[in-house]
Design a protein that fits this description.
The complex is a heterodimer of chains A (about 525) and B (about 350). Chain A has about 525 residues and is α/β, with parallel strands linked by helices. In chain A, α4 packs across α5. The chains are: A alpha/beta (about 525), B mainly alpha (about 350).
């Protein structure tokens, strides 16, 4: 397993060391048993833009957090201006000239733009905070960014793109030497991106170094000087802009020998198990758009369907609506011939619909309960006789589940937190499979688990399909679309933008999702 | 690479298993050891403490707190808090007192004297209803539990004061010719030498213990308290569970109100002030986590006895009531401190 696919792509030639201002050497970061970074080398060049490419979970954000002092590396060192340093905190890193624009907005919505930008480093005058000076500087920053945002507006009244601008303005106001931008454009319009790029060019000409992370590959190619690709926590490729193109990036991001199985065959699909008709789900924020937009989909018994899409494409909302957590504003959900839109989550589960949620810590596991209690949670009524639960029936159900999804555990009494990420995920899957569903929905079932566990999860799903259950899973890793799925559906902006059979190529999938051709 | 990571995972787990034993035993059984310690110290300090009659008297005091604490445990397991129990206790006591005085029906020109069992049923129903209001506010209107029950605490106390105009019902005995005697039975009589109130507490504790450990509702409660979103997605009716726990808490407050009114042979609108805090303290001393999902009836009972035996012991050896407050406070802080050590340790082991 340590022989990560494509490791031979790592260049042997060392980049020009003189121009390197900040570097990571053999940096590793473990979260419990999960290795987010496996000994990464990374260089930031003075006055240049270095772009970091990689799929979700490849370790991009973790690497940036290490470089900006937010998390400490488990091993390896950070070298600033040729000398090893240890950042005790993000403030420490900021004081040494490194600032970061976070992927998740880190603004206080109740405070004004001005107060957010100077949060923690207020300009003090003789009588307290010098608001006038702060306001003057904010106006200057907004002029530079060509945005018409009043410094006194509360951040919560700004739209998402403007909030991102405020986040960028805050990083710019620090006058840092090294600026890390983690997905800075995800909510920006095309014009705003243009302005941001102009600002980036200004900064680099002044000698500021930029680290740039984006899912919009073409957009990133416009601005970058160097490209670094991460995969599964390891650096797989490094090259200057002149030597790379889109295809090079995709190839290195996804990897070649990525075997997660093939679509199970040798049987006929059954009747339509799940039918979604014209399903529409409005945005929760009330922003007036639909996160799922008149979407229709049929899945047959025994069929495995993969839904691919970028963040915000509406995959999670679609599955949560089918499962009953989110209410649709219109449309029908038909399970084995019966309309189920009006039923509660519990009723849908007992009719044979199971959802394995995306975030297993937040939505999947009860941390205060044991492995066994988590496994039996969705089937409590199965082992309840009268008003009492039967210990004997429960034990049998749990033992069966542990065997079925091959959870490695000390026993049903073990604390759920004692399991590895992959085994925790299997517990969440096992919990829902124990309800003996007709249709299994899985939202990013492979998120945050290692490749071995991934393969096992896909094997379990493949087995279930052979037994006549319908499987729908989502992913944001292209390689996983080309594994066990009979059919690949691409979602974009709440709709199905393309549909492929199992023999499609990665490039076609990425193109259809809007990933490679954005903005 | 695979080897090193496997070792990294397994070694702390093994280390942990060896470190169980004495430290963990003391930590997990702390409420029990605290109780033993309290009994030992006061028995040494006062010859009157370690007697059967004193234990029964103290137990009948504990009964009030204990009953409230079991209701509170249900709410705390759900991740909530119920500040209204002291006020519900007072209101229900006053309402029971009001019924015992007879209900005048102007239309028919008669005064109805409901029998004691009917008074008990009506009072419990009222407590349950107020609890249900709490539950609906928290579950369906998403009012934070602290605020919802704080509001209900004031409202219930206000109604109790309004009903009696601030006065106290002193005559709860009823009259034989009206067929409504027997209210004193709850607070004063004994069965097999044990005060009825203690038996009521024991019965409630046993039923609550079985519900929590053996019923599907109990499992729902632990699951939704531990992680409401996960429970919801697993088909647990989390809102219904929430309304139920507050309803149970309200009903048990009413029971405690009846027992207290019966023990005091009077029903006053200011009874039970700050009892909600004592109940929370008992639950916390018993090892329950205020974040929900952890705790049990056995611990809560021990917590109630620790508080009750400690304060009665201080009275017996003649410590001033001001010092009693200080001691009780110190015990609560110590308990919460130990809770956080215990849960932090557990979390550290799991990560």
């Amino acid at each position: 397993m340590s022989a990560a696919p494509g490791l031979s792509d790592v260049p042997l030639a060392k980049p020009d060391v003189r121009e390197v201002v900040l570097a990571a050497r053999h940096v590793a970061k473990n979260y419990g048993s999960i290795q987010a970074l496996k000994g990464v080398n990374f260089d930031i060049h003075r006055g240049q833009v270095t772009t970091l490419f990689g799929e979700n979970g490849a370790g991009k954000s973790t690497l940036m957090k290490v470089l900006s002092g937010i998390v400490q590396p488990s091993s390896g060192e950070i070298i600033l201006d040729g000398k090893p340093v240890i950042f005790s905190s993000s403030t420490d890193a900021r004081d040494r000239g490194i600032s970061i624009i976070h992927q998740e907005l880190s603004l206080a919505p109740n405070l004004s733009v001005r107060d957010n930008i100077f949060m923690g480093r207020e300009i003090m005058g003789p009588t307290g905070v010098n608001y006038a000076e702060e306001e003057r500087q904010v106006r200057g920053l907004m002029e530079e960014l060509e945005e018409d945002i009043d410094p006194l507006t509360p951040v919560e009244e700004l739209r998402l793109g403007q909030q991102q601008i405020v986040e960028i303005a805050r990083a710019l106001s620090i006058d840092s030497r090294i600026l890390i931008m983690d997905e800075p454009t995800s909510a920006l319009s095309a014009t705003e991106v243009e302005v941001l790029f102009k600002v980036i060019r200004d900064l680099t000409s002044k000698g500021v170094s930029i680290v740039y992370i984006s899912h919009h590959l073409e957009e990133a190619l416009q601005i970058t000087d160097h490209a670094v690709v991460l995969r599964d926590g390891a650096m797989t490729a490094y090259a200057p802009r002149a030597e790379i193109d889109l295809e090079w990036i995709v190839r290195n991001m996804v990897g070649e020998n990525y075997d997660l199985g093939t679509p199970p065959g040798g049987y006929e699909f059954g009747d339509v198990a799940l039918s979604v008709r014209e399903l529409t789900v409005p945005s929760e924020s009330g922003a007036g758009f639909n996160v799922v937009d008149r979407l229709s989909l049929d899945v047959r018994a025994g069929e495995i369907v993969c839904i691919y899409g970028l963040m915000g494409a509406g995959r999670t909302e679609l599955l949560e609506t089918i499962a009953g957590r989110v209410r649709a504003s219109s449309g029908q959900i038909v399970l084995a011939g019966q309309e189920i839109s009006h039923l509660s989550i519990g009723e849908r589960i007992s009719r044979g619909l199971a959802l394995v949620p995306e975030d297993r810590q937040r939505d999947g596991l009860v941390q205060t309960m044991s492995v066994g209690e988590n496994l039996s949670l969705a089937s409590i009524m199965e082992f309840t006789r009268g008003i009492f639960t039967s210990k004997k029936l429960e034990r049998a159900l749990i033992a069966n589940s542990i065997r079925d999804v091959t959870v490695k555990t000390d026993g049903p009494e073990a604390a759920i937190g004692s399991l590895s990420g992959g085994n925790q995920q299997k517990v969440v899957i096992g919990k829902m499979l124990a309800t003996d569903p007709k249709v299994i929905l899985l939202d990013e079932p492979s998120r945050g688990i290692d490749i071995g566990a991934k393969a096992e999860v896909f094997r379990i799903l493949s087995d279930r399909a052979k037994r006549g259950q319908a499987v729908i899973f989502t992913t944001s890793e292209v390689g996983e679309c080309l594994s066990i799925a009979h059919r690949i559906i691409i979602m974009s902006r709440g709709r199905i933008s393309a549909e492929f059979s199992a023999d499609v190529t990665k490039e076609k999938i990425m193109a259809a999702s809007g990933e490679a051709v954005a903005a | 690479m695979t080897d090193t990571s496997a070792n990294g995972v397994s070694s702390p787990v093994k280390g942990n298993k060896n470190r169980l034993s004495l430290g963990k035993l003391l930590l997990e059984g702390r409420a029990f050891f605290a109780l033993i310690l309290i009994i030992a110290v006061f028995s040494y300090l006062s010859p009157n403490y370690f007697t059967a009659s004193n234990f029964l008297i103290m137990a009948s005091h504990v009964a009030i707190y204990g009953i409230l604490a079991i209701g509170m445990l249900f709410v705390v397991l759900n991740g909530g808090i119920d500040l209204s129990v002291g006020s519900i206790l007072a209101l229900c006591g006053v309402v029971a007192g009001f019924f015992m005085q007879g209900v005048e029906l102007h239309v028919f020109g008669v005064i109805l004297y409901p029998p004691v069992w009917a008074v008990v049923v009506l009072t419990c129903a009222l407590g349950a209803l107020i609890g249900a209001v709490n539950g609906v506010l928290v579950a369906y209107f998403r009012v934070p539990a602290f605020v919802a029950t704080l509001g209900v605490m004031y409202v219930a106390r206000g109604f109790a004061l309004l009903m009696t105009n601030g006065l106290t019902y002193n005559n709860l005995a009823g009259r034989p010719e009206l067929g409504n005697t027997g209210f004193d039975w709850l607070g004063f009589n004994r069965l097999f030498g044990i005060p009825i109130s203690v038996l009521v507490l024991a019965a409630i504790a046993i039923v609550a213990g079985i519900v929590l450990s053996r019923s599907s509702f109990g499992r729902w409660l632990y699951a939704s308290g531990g992680n409401e979103r996960a429970a919801d997605l697993s088909g647990v009716p989390v809102k219904r569970v929430k309304v139920t726990v507050y309803t149970l808490s309200g009903m048990l407050s009413a029971v405690a109100g009846l027992v207290l009114a019966s023990q005091l042979t009077s029903a006053g609108p200011t009874a039970g002030t700050t009892y909600e805090l004592t109940a929370i303290a008992a639950v916390v001393i018993g090892g329950a986590a205020l974040t929900g999902g952890r705790g049990n009836v056995r611990g809560t009972m021990l917590g109630a006895f620790v508080i009750g035996f400690l304060s009665d012991g201080l009275v017996i050896i003649g410590v001033s009531s001001y010092w009693q407050t200080v001691f009780t406070g110190a015990v609560i802080v110590l308990a919460v401190l130990l809770n956080s050590i215990q849960y932090r340790g557990r979390r550290g082991a799991t990560k």
